[in-house]
Amino acid sequence: MTAPTTGNLRVNGASLHYEVRGEGPPLLLIPGGTGGASSFDDVADTLAADYTVVTYDPRGMSRSPLDDPEAEQRVAEHADDALRILDLLSPGERARVLGVSSGAIVSLHLLTAHPGRIERVVAHEPPVVEVLPDAADHRALIARVRETFHAQGTMPAMAVFAAGLKREGDTDEPKAEITLPPQAVARAERTMANLPYFVGRIVPSFMSYAPDLDRLRALSDRLVLAGGQDSRGELPYRPAAYLAERFGTELVHFPGGHIGLTTHPAEFAELLRKAFRG
């Protein structure tokens, strides 16, 4: 694994840890869930042969502390953070962007708010549930997660959240075990430390976000909506499928499920290259 160049960028209310690898056109990778820059280590090394790959810990995660740990989180502010990183590391250049999960929500806002800075966005399973016909059901899920978090704590809230993400008809029967690379296992401690912030701040705010659909449609020639081959029907998959159908564009399937970039990094990186080539 190539050691990246690291730095810190001061933004409104936070300090962002970022990492840079390779040379070439700028490629910004926006993590989701409880992940940070390190969640992209396996794909970033591969992509650095073709791009200047920039990864970072979103505000409040891992090595990007908030000035006010209790501050409310907003998608627009996280997208502004991404823009600030691009302005620092690739001023004036249009960037390619991959966003995964909650990071994919950020990438959608970044595209609609600052299209002049974006060459192409791949949004992998953005859980923008407000676009779905059954959005009211998912608002109720978010409310249950929030109430459980405040009443019982992180792990019970995560259990409620995870149950709400399953595809219709799924049972609690054990599924085939996923074998993670050693690097992913080593990241588990940091991931666990980020859980309270994720379930308490990111989930309620980000999953209540409603994208500008007219703006996205107008920019759909620069937007690749993506889902995991193994996550068809699960909640994070459904908005990407719905938007692709609504915009008349292809839904691109990446290997694995919602965390395919972790379980299938080489295949994920190769398909990502193709997506950016159009």
Instruction: Assess the beta-strand content as a share of residues.
Output: 15-25%
Query: Could you tell me the radius of gyration in angstroms?
Result: 17 Å
Provide the residue-averaged pLDDT.
93
From the 3D coordinates, which CATH architecture would you assign?
A: 3-Layer(aba) Sandwich
Q: How is the main sheet built?
A: 8 strands, mixed
Whole-number tally of structural domains: 1
The count of DSSP E runs of length 2 or more, i.e. the number of strands, is 8
In CATH, what is the homologous superfamily? Alpha/Beta hydrolase fold, catalytic domain
Strand order of the largest sheet: 1-2-4-3-5-6-7-8
Q: What name does CATH use for the topology? A: Rossmann fold
Which parts are unreliable, with pLDDT below 50 for 5 consecutive residues or more? none
The level of helicity is: 40-55%
- Taken in chain order, the helices and strands follow as EEEHEHEHEHHHHHEHEHH
Number of helices: 11
If you had to describe this structure to a student in words, what would you say it looks like?
- The chain is of the alpha/beta class and 278 residues long.
- The chain has one domain: Alpha/Beta hydrolase fold, catalytic domain (Rossmann fold), CATH 3.40.50.
- It contains eleven helices and eight strands.
- An eight-stranded mixed sheet has the order 1-2-4-3-5-6-7-8, sandwiched between helices.
- Strand 7, helix 9 and strand 8 form a beta-alpha-beta unit.
- Helix 1 crosses helix 11, helix 2 packs across helix 3 and helix 5 packs across helix 7.
- The protein is globular.
